[in-house]
Amino acid sequence: MYLIVGLGNPGRQYAHTRHNVGFDVMDAMAEKYNISISEKKHRALCGKGMIAGSKVVLVKPQTFMNLSGESVAELLHYYKVDPESELIVIFDDISLPPGKLRIRKKGSAGGHNGIKNIISMIGTQNFLRIKVGVGEKPKDWDLVDHVLGHFGKEDRGKIEEAIGRTMLAAEMLLHGEVDTAMNEFNKKES
């Protein structure tokens, strides 16, 4: 069984903001694979189903971004899931252009507080992750205002396209095609 965790903040005021790209991906996956993310457990909204022949639990932590690890750690323990081989975390990345994907097998938090908390709570940084680019903050902007802000029309289109690619990447990870997915989706812009 895999836990696929999309990071974001609960509440309508945060819907479709840059920081909630992970939630947007979870909603798209739920719709595509007919999985209801409505079960409340371990401070998260969860939904069980099948994707690409694998049992999955789609997860939207409800702890707010900076405490995401509390929910993820509880779910890993509850489902007896190995974080190093059965956890996929999907989240926003301000160091990537809007819509660009980056898949990693492991790594540091890179300044992302949600990932920092997950690493702290589960005791490893060796877990699969899909970063979705949301663009750098404009000069003289506050970082919080940027990540909690909404996309402009052009960037929103890039994000919608990226959500589809993120779902394809997740399917490849479920099939164990991590290196293939990295080669496919981590390409440099030419």
Q: What is the fold's blueprint, element by element?
A:
Layout: E1 2-6, H1 21-33, E2 39-41, E3 44-51, E4 54-61, H2 68-79, H3 83-86, E5 87-93, E6 101-104, H4 113-122, E7 128-133, H5 143-147, H6 153-174, H7 178-185
Parallel strand pairs: 1-4, 1-5, 5-7
Antiparallel strand pairs: 2-3, 3-4, 6-7
Helix pairs in contact: 1-6, 2-4, 6-7
Characterization of the model:
The protein is α/β, with parallel strands linked by helices and 190 residues long. Helices cover 39% and strands 22% of the residues. The protein has helices at 21-33, 68-79, 83-86, 113-122, 143-147, 153-174, 178-185; strands at 2-6, 39-41, 44-51, 54-61, 87-93, 101-104, 128-133. A 7-stranded mixed beta sheet has the order 2-3-4-1-5-7-6, sandwiched between helices. A hairpin with a 2-residue loop joins β2 (39-41) and β3. The longest helix has 22 residues, at 153-174. It starts with a strand and ends in a 5-residue tail after the last helix. The model has no long low-confidence stretch (mean pLDDT 95).
Brief digest:
By secondary structure, this protein is an alpha/beta fold. The protein is about 40% helix and about 20% strand.
